[in-house]
Amino acid sequence: MSIQAKQNMNVLSANMHNASIQTAIEQLISNQSLSYTQSKALFDEIMQGNMSDIELSALLIALKSKGEISDEIAGAAASMRENALAFNTTSNQLADCCGTGGDGSNTINISTTAAIVAAAAGINMVKHGNRSVSSNSGSADLLKALGINIEMTPAQAANCLEQTGFTFLFAPQYHPGVRHAMGVRTTLKTRTIFNILGPLVNPAAPEVQLLGVYDPNLCLPMAQTLRTLGTKRAMIVHGSGTDEIALHGPTTVVELNNGNINEYTLNPSDFDLANYSLEQLTGEGPQYNANVSLAILQGKGNEAHNAAIIVNVAALLYLSGKAQSLKDGAQQVHTLLSSGQAMNTLNAIIEVSNG
C-alpha cells in the first residue's frame, strides 16, 4: 500500500471516529440513551487514549445530564474490564465488597476490614480498590497501614489469594487507561459515570458482590449492570445516607440472585443486632483506622465496630451460600470475631503479600 493510501485510510478512520463520538453526544443531548455496544465502543476509545479532552468532557457531561442507564454503565464497565491488566487465579467463587464512596460519612474502613474477616470465614475475597478519594482513608491506605503489600504483581496477587483467601488488586495498576481521563475529571470537578465505575471493574470479575452506593436511586441500575456483566449473586445497598448496610436506620437493598432482581429493606434487627449511631463508626486517618481494624480482628473491637463488620460479612456469607440466612451469617461472624481467628488471616496476608 502506498504512503498516500495509508494517509487516506488514516484520515477516513479519524473522520469515522469523530463522527461516532459526535453522533453519541448528539444522541445524549436529545435525551436518547446509548446502547451497551455504543457505550463499550466509546469507552474503548477513552481507555486507549483515542478521545480528545474536549470530546471526553462533552461525552461525560451529556451522559450526566441525561442520567446514566444500566446499559451505558455496563458497556463502560465491560470496556474497562477488557482493557485492564489480566488477573488469573485457580480459586473459584470469587467475591468483593466495596462502595462507591462519596457519601461524606467518613466512617472507619468497614468493607476492607470485612473483606479480611470474610476471608477468615472461608470466602475467596478479591478486594479491588484505591487510595482515598472522598474519605479519610481508602482501602489501599488501610491495607498499607496494616503492613500488606498493595502493589503485588498479578502473579503475586493470585498466590496471595490461593494461600490466604484474600488478595488486593490496586486499581491504578490494573487500569492504566484511566489516566487518559484524569485531566478532564479533575477539571470538571463534578461527579461523572467514573464515580460509579470503580466497584464494577474488578479485573477478577467476581461472581459474588456486596456493593454500596451513595444514592438509593443507583441500587436498581447497578444491580441490572452487574447482571449484564455476569455477576451471579449480589446485594446493592444504600443505608440511610451511606454506601453501607446501616446500623443507624433502614437499608435499601436490591438483590441479584442468578438473574432475578428483588428489592427490599433491611434493619439491624434482621441480623439480631441493636441500632448504633453513625457517630459511633466515625473514622480518622489510615493509622487510626488501622488500629480500629486490628482491634476488631483481634477480637477486641467495640460493639458498634463489630456490628458494622458483622452485617457486611453476614451478607457475604449469605450471598456465597455459606449461611442459610442473614441471622445465621451474623451468628457465624460473631463467633469468628470473638475467637480472634481473623488476626491469623491478616498475619498470613502480610507474610504472603510481601513474600
From TrEMBL:
Homodimer. Anthranilate 1 binds at G99, N130. GO terms for molecular function: anthranilate phosphoribosyltransferase activity; magnesium ion binding. Anthranilate 2 binds at R185. It comes from the Bacteria. In the C-terminal section; belongs to the anthranilate phosphoribosyltransferase family. NCBIfam families: trpD. Its EC number is 2.4.2.18. This is Anthranilate phosphoribosyltransferase. Its cofactor is Mg(2+). Pfam families: Glycos_trans_3N, Glycos_transf_3. The keyword Cell cycle does not apply. Keywords: Amino-acid biosynthesis, Aromatic amino acid biosynthesis, Glycosyltransferase, Magnesium, Metal-binding, Transferase, Tryptophan biosynthesis. It comes from Pseudoalteromonas translucida KMM 520. 5-phospho-alpha-D-ribose 1-diphosphate binds at residues 99, 102-103, 107, 109-112, 127-135, 139.
